[in-house]
Amino acid sequence: MIDIHTHLIPNVDDGADSIKETLRLARAAVEEGITHTVLTPHHNRYWVTNEKDKVLKLTKEVEQAIQEENIPLTVSPSQEIRMNEEFSEELFAGNYLPLDENGQYYLVEFSWSDFPSFARTYLQEMLDAGITPVIAHPERQRPFLDNPDLLKGLIEMGCISQVTASSIVGDYTEEIRQASHYMMEENLIHVIASDAHNTYERPFNMVEALKILDKVYGTTYKEYLVDNAEKIFMGQKVKPFKN
Ligand SMILES: [Fe+2]
């Protein structure tokens, strides 16, 4: 299983706060059946930036530390990129790290509170260039909670979206748990990821979330959300879910 959204790199955002915690997270990932984690530190948030070169360098360090401990987990560099006014310019200048090697997918995060006026244009520019934006955890963003049609419009444009395992489990609020289910029922979700930050408050929760998906929606849908993580990582096309 591949996890396309994690905060394992130590001391760069609100994720792992030491290399020891990185290693604890790596072991926890393996226990959950994860074989590869894409490292997606926050970028473009007002309180934190993690530039491409820094992430590339730190990913190598994390990789080495994991190998030294003989933990059977591979990692690759990417970013969780906050949508801001410079987003499009920076993206097309090659300053962002995609989720896959070929640059087909980028993990795009919106602020908790608003959906900026320029966002739709920027997303369309990506789609026109053959790039698919992966919207990070829409079930945890106020604009999508208040207006699911906003998300629906973006999916109809060609964007895809990632639900967080802990939202399904109910580790955030009941509103977020319900929103995650509503969005899945409406076919507005394409992939599941952990967004794991640490082992104590924001863990992987993948096994538990997958159990719920299996029970509520069945194995085919659960596998659809899991398999798309691999498709994204391999730069392959993600299709809408069909019963
Ligand atoms: Fe994240």
UniProtKB/TrEMBL annotation:
Pfam families: CpsB_CapC. The keyword DNA-binding does not apply. InterPro entries: Caps_polysacc_synth_CpsB/CapC, Pol/histidinol_Pase-like. It catalyses: O-phospho-L-tyrosyl-[protein] + H2O = L-tyrosyl-[protein] + phosphate. Keywords: Hydrolase, Protein phosphatase. Its EC number is 3.1.3.48. GO terms for molecular function: manganese ion binding; protein tyrosine phosphatase activity. Transmembrane segments: none annotated. Belongs to the metallo-dependent hydrolases superfamily. CpsB/CapC family. This is Tyrosine-protein phosphatase. The lineage of its organism: Bacteria, Bacillati, Bacillota, Bacilli, Lactobacillales.
